Every structure is written in C-alpha cells, then in structure tokens.
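Researcher: Quick test of sequence recovery. Tokens follow.
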C-alpha cells in the first residue's frame, strides 16, 4: 500500500487475521501495550482511540528490515501462519476498509511487525493533534520465534504475561477433542488452517540466557503423549503416541503429527538456543508456547487439570447417556434388550417383545428348524382364526411353506403386495374384525379401534417367505397373536408350550 486507509476500531483494538474466525489464544495472555498474540492465525493491535477511526498502512517486505523506522512511538512483532497467503486488518467488531482486506502475503510462516504513533484517546485528543497511525510490516520467515517488543512506548504499562495459560491452550489446541458434530449432518468444509499442501515444515526457536534442560521422558497429554528421547548430548527426538492409560471414555487415536521431529539444544556466547526442527507450520506457535513453558517450569503440566476435568465430564455424560439408553431400550423391548442379532433384525421383534418378552427370547433360543416349524404353526393358527385356512390358494401357499417349497412369486415380490391385493378382492374372505391394541407411548395416527381380522392374520403367512427362520418365526407369531384379538393370551400360552 502506498497510501493510508481509514479503519474503524472499537474498544481500542483491531485485529490482523490470516484465517478469519479461527479460535485462538485469549487476549491479555501474551503481549505488550501494542500487540497481543491471538493464536497461529491472528493477533490484536492496540490503539489510543476507543471508538473511531485510525490510519493504517500495510507493507509486504522481501526480508526483515535492517533497522526500525524512525518516528514511531511503539513497535512490536510476532509470527503468524498464513496457509492461504492472504491477510486482512479489521476492526474488533467487524469494521473493515477495502484496502486492508484480503491482501496478498507470503504463504506459510510470516513475521508481522506493528508500528504505532500518536495513540491518544478521544478525551485528550485536540483538533491540532495528528491522526493516529499504525503501519504493518510483513515478511516471510522459516522459523517460529516468540513475540517481542521492538520499541516500547514509555507512556504505557506492560501487561502481565501468563505463559502457563498459554501452554495449556497450546497443548489443548494440538490435540483437540472431537466437536461432537452429529454424524447425520454433512461434513463441514475443509479447514484451510490445516492445508499444508506444498509448504515445508518449519523450525521453532527458543533462546534462554541461563542453562536449561530438555525434559527427557513422557509429556502427558490426556489420551496422547509426547515422547522425548535423547539421541546424543545435544539432540533429542520428539514423537507423538497414544497414552497407555487414556483419560476419556472414547480416547483420541489420531496423532497431531505422525512424523517424529528433532530437537537440538546448543549453547553459545549469548546463552542457550533450542531449535525444534520439522514442525508442521500450523503447529509452530503452539509448540513454541509449550517449549517456553517447559524450559522455564519443567515438570509442571497445567493442561492436565483441564483434561482431567473434561474427562470426568465426558465420563459422567457417557454414563448418563448409557442410563437413558438403557431406559429407552427397556421401554422399547419390554425389559433388558435382546442380543445384538435380534436388535439388528428388520422384523416385528420389538412389537412382539412388548406383548411377551420371554416368548421372543424363547424363539431366539430355538434351533433354526424349530424356528421354521414355529413360524408355520403360528401362520396356520392365524389363518384358522381368520377363516382363511380353507380358501384354496391360501391353503396351497401354506402347504408349500410347510413342505419347504417356495411360495408363489406374488407372495415374495414387493413384500407380498400382490398376495395382499388378491386377499382384499377375494369374495370368499370373511370381513370380520379384531380389536386394536394400542401400545402406550407409540406414535399413531387416526382413531381406529379395530381392524380387519384377515388383514391382521395374512402377514403371518407372508412372513414364511423370509429366508431367515428367526425373522419368519418372530413375524408369524406376532401377526398371529394380533389376529387372535381377545384370545391373544391363550395363543401366547400355546406358543410357549409349542416352543418347549
């Protein structure tokens, strides 16, 4: 940009984004009076104007500036991850300037330096004061280094730094829990923050003036862990793995990074330098925040308290869900749910269970030949009570089924629709009725209290077309029971005797 753009700001803040809307590190955690780290994709700049306008200009440089430009009151910088090569400067509550939106910047790691001058609030600003101006310098980098104050404003105070809170956010962001998005919903759009296509891995750099040590061993991370192993006196390997004792009822299994990386700790005239090589660019900030904490306070893992609480909440929710499911199953099945095989059947198993739970178990326990015999027995009783047993074509179909011969095609095609149509149009069929038994809590439409007994009984015959003897027995017994109407209890008692 050669000129200045007018940017509306609120609450003395504006934001620099490379991936709009991504969640990140909370404000007032790491930063100074000009810049606060907001995450791998954003930072917050502070201005003097509470609500109003400031002048902003963005400059993309070919490399780091040799010196700080004169005339600025405060200068600070931090590293951002720009997976798409785009950047925007916006006001805190969505204020925008077209010239500051969707700017082209280097793709990958970039260093962002904020410059500010004439930061005056509305109460002290006079007509003769120059406008508040902020300039943003950007250049490509290959190393993630911590934020820093380049030039401190003597009129401002320093914010309290919270490295432990930052480390907690870092670990939780590296191994996030699933969102809980319902599986019935279509998958969300691909996250550009995770698109590393064509981008090299980067190096995270931390420096300390005094001696520090790499915490060799295991860094706990809930369901996951980081394994740090010594290679030689200056080199260590960093690799992610699943924990031997996960915390959550449904543990994470996907690792933040499948590839091991290398950590080097060297000393020199300026102190000690840790270089973590081969880090995915989107993870560079989080890994850097972890190292800042681990080097200064070894042995303290502030993220574990949060993970333990989350795991306890997840276990409580899982138990609550299990109890509710058990209650629903008990209501649905008239007691404890049957085997997985019965639950997976496309059949009348639930309906039969609600009128005689033990009969369903008895049918399932019978051998296949006995199940087929029971299905034929139930079909014959259903046809007899409905007056259908002596109608020629129906009697022939029952005889075929009892002799293990295939039923005619109109019994098997389209779920027996042709056979049912013939039933309804056959003049020999008596049009008697049977009372309807409405199951409590089962959704129904209409207010009918009775149904055609032949229509209730006939599905017991079409059930014999099913190749699975268990399904055939369940469906035939259920429909026969319904066809018996007020004699249902006697039929069920006879069915128990037959299955003994």
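Model:
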């Amino acid at each position: 940009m050669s000129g200045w753009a007018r940017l509306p700001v609120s609450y003395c803040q504006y934001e620099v984004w490379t991936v709009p809307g991504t969640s990140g590190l909370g404000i007032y955690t790491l930063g100074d009076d000009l810049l606060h780290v907001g995450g791998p994709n954003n930072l917050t700049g502070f201005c003097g104007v509470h609500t109003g306008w400031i002048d902003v200009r963005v400059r993309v440089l070919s490399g780091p500036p040799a010196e700080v430009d004169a005339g600025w009151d405060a200068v600070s910088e931090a590293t951002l991850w720009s997976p798409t090569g785009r950047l925007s400067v916006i006001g805190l509550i969505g204020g925008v300037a077209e010239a500051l939106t969707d700017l082209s910047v280097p793709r990958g790691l970039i260093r962002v330096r904020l410059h500010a001058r004439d930061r005056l609030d509305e109460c002290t600003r006079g007509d003769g004061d120059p406008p508040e101006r902020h300039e943003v310098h950007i250049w490509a980098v290959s190393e993630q280094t911590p934020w820093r104050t380049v030039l401190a404003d003597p009129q401002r105070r320093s914010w309290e730094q919270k490295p432990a809170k930052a480390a907690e956010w870092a670990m939780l962001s590296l191994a996030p829990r699933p969102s809980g998005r319902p599986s019935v919903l279509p998958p969300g759009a691909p996250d550009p923050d995770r698109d590393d296509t064509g981008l090299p891995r980067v190096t995270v750099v931390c420096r300390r003036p005094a001696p520090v040590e790499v915490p060799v061993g295991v860094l706990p991370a809930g369901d996951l862990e980081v394994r740090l192993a010594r290679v030689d006196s200056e080199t260590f390997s960093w690799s992610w793995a699943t924990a031997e004792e996960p915390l959550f009822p449904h543990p994470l299994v996907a690792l933040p990074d499948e590839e091991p990386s290398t950590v080097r700790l060297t000393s020199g005239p300026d102190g000690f330098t840790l270089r973590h090589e081969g880090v995915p660019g989107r993870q560079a900030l989080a890994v850097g925040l972890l190292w800042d904490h681990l080097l200064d306070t070894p042995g303290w893992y502030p993220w574990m308290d949060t993970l333990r609480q989350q795991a306890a909440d997840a276990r409580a929710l899982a138990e609550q869900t299990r109890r509710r499911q058990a209650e629903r199953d008990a209501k649905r099945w008239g007691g404890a749910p049957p085997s997985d095989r019965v639950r997976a059947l496309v059949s009348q198993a639930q309906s039969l269970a609600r009128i005689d739970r033990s009969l369903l178990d008895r049918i399932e326990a019978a051998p296949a030949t006995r199940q087929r015999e029971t299905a034929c027995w139930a079909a014959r009783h259903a046809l007899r009570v409905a007056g259908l047993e002596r109608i020629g074509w129906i009697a022939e179909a029952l005889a075929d089924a009892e002799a293990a011969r295939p039923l005619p095609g109109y019994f098997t095609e389209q779920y027996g629709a042709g056979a049912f149509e013939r039933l309804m149009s056959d003049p020999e069929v008596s049009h008697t009725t049977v009372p309807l038994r409405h199951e409590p809590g089962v959704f129904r439409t209409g207010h009918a209290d009775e149904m055609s007994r032949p229509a209730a009984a006939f599905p017991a015959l079409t059930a014999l077309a099913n190749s699975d003897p268990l399904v055939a027995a369940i469906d035939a017994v259920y429909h026969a029971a319904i066809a018996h109407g007020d004699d249902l209890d006697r039929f069920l008692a006879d069915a128990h005797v037959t299955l003994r």
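The longest strand covers residues 108-117.
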